[in-house]
Amino acid sequence: MKSIHISEFLQSRIEAGDFPSASYLVAEKGKIVLQDAIGLAVVEPERIEAKIDTIYDLASLTKVLVTGLLCAKLIESGEIDLEEIIEVYLTEFQNHPESLKDMKWDTLIYELLTHISCFPSWKPFYLMSNDRLEGVENRNKVLELIIRTPLKTEHKVLYSDLNFLILTFLVERIYGKRIDEVAREEIFEPLKLQNTFYNPPNELRKKIAASEKGNEFEKQTCIEQDFDVSKYPWRDYQIWGEVHDGNCFYMSGVSGHAGLFSTAEEVFKIAQQFLPNQSQTLKPETCELFQTNFTPNLNEARSIAFQLAETKDSSAGLALSKHSFGHLGFTGTSLWIEPETERIFILLTNRTHAHELPFVILNSVRRKFHELATDILGSKQA
């Protein structure tokens, strides 16, 4: 059923110009209790209403729904060790440039998963390559460029795409195949997902929420960081049905940091895999990794792949317990899980569509969504 209060609130944010559409889902103990879709999934070049089965570009939710889950499986099977250094699995890291020899290169697996590796937050690898390559060559070039990237020196949580790009290559090296194939075999097919994929087929385009026209946000970010943007073939068309993230697009739409498309209901099915009493994928003790704070006394509370709600100013808000864990996606998506109540909160929007820069920061919307939903669930329990 839908919540009039939540739907009306999200409609008010659509009218305020925060985003053109939203699809939300709230579940408790494995059952969907609230669900609705509001607004226009596509505003231009045509107008298409959002539905509860509209497919969204999940952006960085890919980090938890694919890479985090696959890494947890590998931890559980003993194929990776959280306390092991990355170069044990990716021997290319043994050959870092001589100019970086004084940098800290004994990065541990858990430091990548919790964003305390000291890698910078982002680099436009598609601009740093001398040539625009194709397919697998792009992927190899990204790894080479990451290895040549100087580390930061301050010990703190620094959220970084580079961490999960490295984990992409780790997963692919262990499984011996590209991460989209691994995800299909290990996650999508076992959970019987029908609308979750990388590089969605063109025939589903009208079921997909559109994103930014061109990639002006990343272009402006590159200019601010003094990169030469003049020779790169920037996308100048409406991004719709292909990944928004520039590095993932450069990697043929397949990475562990971005690239996943799905619906709210299928995000829910993957999210259940992080809860001990619901997971078909992991043992209960492995699920504890997602609510364990691995970064005590640092600037953010981080578990394996997720942020914890005890982080100051977290988008979970005060409505969720401090043990809740969640993640956001740049395109306007969010997932939060409260383990004590086994509640799952999913809010998917396409804030980058039909909106001039700057895009709206949605954390206050997410907090209000959680507040309204918990109020309804609380009264329902009573």
Shape: globular
- CA-atom Rg in angstroms: 20 Å
The helix count comes to 12
Order of helices and strands: HEEEEHHHHHHEHHEHHEEEEH
The total beta strand count reads 10
Summarize the helices and strands and which ones pair or pack.
Blueprint: H1 4-15, E1 21-28, E2 31-42, E3 48-49, E4 56-57, H2 61-77, H3 109-113, H4 125-128, H5 136-147, H6 161-175, H7 179-188, E5 197-198, H8 216-224, H9 246-250, E6 260-262, H10 264-271, H11 284-287, E7 307-308, E8 325-329, E9 333-338, E10 343-349, H12 363-381
Antiparallel strand pairs: 1-2, 1-10, 2-3, 4-6, 5-6, 7-8, 8-9, 9-10
Helix pairs in contact: 1-12, 2-6
Structural account:
It is a single chain. The protein is α+β, with helices and mostly antiparallel strands and 382 residues long. It is 31% helix and 13% strand. It has 12 helices and 10 strands. A 7-stranded antiparallel sheet has the order 3-2-1-10-9-8-7, with helices on both faces. A hairpin with a 2-residue loop joins strand 1 and strand 2.
Keyphrases for this structure?
single chain; alpha+beta; 382 residues; 13% strand; 10 strands; 3-stranded antiparallel β-sheet
